[in-house]
C-alpha cells in the first residue's frame, strides 16, 4: 500500500479531534543518550480498585464479561469509576493527581537507562519533572513501567519498573522510597501490566519465555505461565482483558496466546492464599496460618495450557497486543496493526483454540522494527503508534475506512526524522498524548478540540 502523502498529513492536523505537537523534554543530554523505552500516565482508580484486592477473589475470581466488539466492558467500567471528589483525598499533596481545585493532575512515569522519572503534563507547557529515581546498578536498563497503588493503608501510589536484570522494582512515590524488589525471572522483563480490578496483582512478561503473576502486598509469585504449550521464545508484551478474567501475551515466537484464570483452579487458589498471607501479616510470603491455626505452605501453580494459540495472524515477531472488548489488536514488524477476533471454543484443556477472524488492518508508515509498542486511551477507542522515523499515527477504531486521524512529528511536522518511537501514552481524558523515543525525548502532543 502506498504511503500517505505529506499533504494528507498536513490536512489531518487541522481536523477536530486530532493532535498537534506542543513540547518535548530530553532525559539524557549525553553524546550517546540511552533510549526511553517506557511511558505511562496514571489514571483514576475504579470502584473495584478501592475495594482492596482480596475481596475480588473470594467468590472465585472476577466475573466474566459478556460484552463483545468495540463497545466492550470499558463503558461499563467507567460508570463505576470514582469521581474526582473521592479521588482527591487518596494522596498527599506532593504527588497527588487531584489538586485543590478538584482538577485531575496528568502525572506520568518514564524509564530511561537505569532511571525512573515522575512528571506532570500541563496543557501548552513542557512536562515538569517531579521525582527522579536511579538504580544502583549502572548497567540496568529499564524497559517498562506501570502505575498501581497500595490497596491498604493510605492508598499510596506505586510505580513498578523492570528491565534487563529481570528484577521488578516497586517504588512508593509518595514516601520517596523503594518499597520492594521482586526476583524470580531468569532473564530480562519486557513488559508489566497491573490487573484492571485488583491493583495488588502485576503480571510480567520475560525473555526467559515465561509470565509471572505477582502479589505486591507480599512480593511473592502467585502463578507462572510457561511450559508445554507456553511461549517458545522471548515474551514481549502482555495485556489483561478489561474484566480481568484472562490476559493475552505475544513474543518473538510469532505467536499470540490467551490465558484464562478459570482454566486452572490452582491459579485462583494461589491468588487467594497470597492475599490471605498479606492479611495475616506473615513474614514468610510462602507460609500462612489457616483458620484452624495450622501452618501451611503456599504452592506456586504453573499453568502450561493457554486457552488460545495462533501463529498465523502475524508472520514475524509480535511485539504488542491489547484487548478491545473481546477482540484483540496486535502488531508485528510489517507496517500494520491487525484487529481480529479469537475463537471462543476449544476441544479440551490440552488442545487450545486456534481459529480466528480478521476484521481490520491499520497501515503504519515505516514501522518495520520490533519493540515499538502502541497505546490505547481509557475507552479503548483511540490507538497511537510510533514508527522508525519519529512519527506517531493516531487511529479511531470506530471509524471506517481505517485511515489515521493524523500522523504527527515533533520536529518537522511534515517530514521524516531519524528516531524510533518506542511507546506512546494517553492521559486520563485523552487530551494529551506522549511519545518516547531512542533519543531519550519525551514528546507531548495535545488534542485539537
TrEMBL record:
Residues forming coiled coils: none
Top-rank taxon: Eukaryota
WD repeat spans: 182-224, 228-269
Pfam families tied to this protein: WD40
Keywords: Repeat, Transcription, Transcription regulation, WD repeat
InterPro entries, per the entry: PcG_WD-repeat, WD40/YVTN_repeat-like_dom_sf, WD40_repeat_CS, WD40_repeat_dom_sf, WD40_rpt
PANTHER family: POLYCOMB PROTEIN
Family affiliation: Belongs to the WD repeat ESC family.
Protein name: Polycomb group protein FERTILIZATION-INDEPENDENT ENDOSPERM
UniProt organism field: Gracilariopsis chorda
Amino acid at each position: 500500500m502506498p504511503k500517505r502523502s505529506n499533504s494528507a498529513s498536513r490536512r489531518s492536523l487541522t481536523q477536530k479531534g486530532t493532535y498537534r505537537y506542543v513540547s518535548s523534554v530530553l532525559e539524557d543530554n549525553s553524546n550517546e543518550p540511552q533510549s526511553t523505552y517506557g511511558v505511562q500516565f496514571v489514571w483514576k482508580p475504579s470502584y473495584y480498585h478501592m475495594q482492596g484486592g482480596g475481596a475480588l477473589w473470594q467468590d472465585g475470581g472476577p466475573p466474566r464479561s459478556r460484552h463483545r466488539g468495540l463497545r466492550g466492558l470499558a463503558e461499563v467500567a467507567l460508570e463505576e469509576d470514582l469521581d474526582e471528589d473521592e479521588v482527591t483525598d487518596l494522596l498527599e499533596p506532593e504527588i497527588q493527581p487531584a489538586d485543590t481545585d478538584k482538577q485531575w493532575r496528568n502525572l506520568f512515569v518514564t524509564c530511561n537507562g537505569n532511571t525512573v522519572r515522575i512528571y506532570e503534563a500541563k496543557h501548552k507547557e513542557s512536562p515538569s519533572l517531579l521525582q527522579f529515581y536511579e538504580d544502583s546498578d549502572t548497567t540496568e536498563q529499564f524497559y517498562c513501567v506501570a502505575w498501581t497503588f497500595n490497596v491498604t493503608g493510605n492508598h499510596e501510589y506505586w510505580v513498578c519498573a523492570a528491565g534487563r536484570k529481570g528484577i521488578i522494582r516497586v517504588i512508593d512515590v509518595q514516601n520517596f522510597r523503594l518499597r520492594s524488589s521482586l526476583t524470580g525471572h531468569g532473564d530480562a522483563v519486557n513488559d508489566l501490566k497491573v490487573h484492571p480490578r485488583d491493583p495488588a496483582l502485576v503480571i510480567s512478561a520475560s525473555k526467559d519465555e515465561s509470565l509471572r503473576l505477582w502479589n505486591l502486598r507480599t512480593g511473592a509469585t502467585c502463578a507462572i505461565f510457561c511450559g508445554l504449550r507456553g511461549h517458545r521464545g522471548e515474551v514481549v508484551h502482555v495485556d489483561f482483558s478489561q474484566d480481568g478474567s484472562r490476559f493475552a501475551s505475544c513474543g518473538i515466537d510469532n505467536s499470540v496466546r490467551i490465558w484464562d484464570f478459570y482454566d486452572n483452579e490452582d491459579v485462583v487458589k494461589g491468588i487467594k492464599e497470597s492475599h490471605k498471607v498479606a492479611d495475616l501479616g506473615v513474614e514468610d510470603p510462602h507460609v500462612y496460618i489457616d483458620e484452624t491455626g495450622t501452618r501451611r505452605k503456599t504452592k506456586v501453580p504453573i499453568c502450561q495450557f493457554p486457552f488460545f494459540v495462533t501463529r498465523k495472524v502475524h508472520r514475524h515477531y509480535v511485539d504488542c497486543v491489547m484487548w478491545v472488548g473481546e477482540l484483540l489488536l496486535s502488531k508485528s514488524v510489517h507496517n500494520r496493526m491487525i484487529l481480529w477476533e479469537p475463537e471462543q471454543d476449544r476441544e479440551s484443556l490440552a488442545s487450545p483454540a486456534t481459529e480466528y477472524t480478521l476484521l481490520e488492518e491499520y497501515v503504519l508508515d515505516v514501522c518495520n522494527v520490533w519493540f515499538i509498542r502502541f497505546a490505547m486511551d481509557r475507552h479503548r477507542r483511540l490507538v497511537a503508534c510510533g514508527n522508525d522515523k519519529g512519527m506517531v499515527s493516531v487511529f479511531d477504531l470506530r471509524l471506517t475506512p481505517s485511515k489515521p486521524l493524523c500522523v504527527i512529528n515533533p520536529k518537522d511536522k511534515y517530514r521524516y526524522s531519524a528516531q524510533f518511537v518506542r511507546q506512546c501514552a494517553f492521559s486520563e481524558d485523552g487530551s494529551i498524548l506522549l511519545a518516547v523515543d531512542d533519543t531519550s525525548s519525551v514528546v507531548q502532543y495535545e488534542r485539537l478540540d
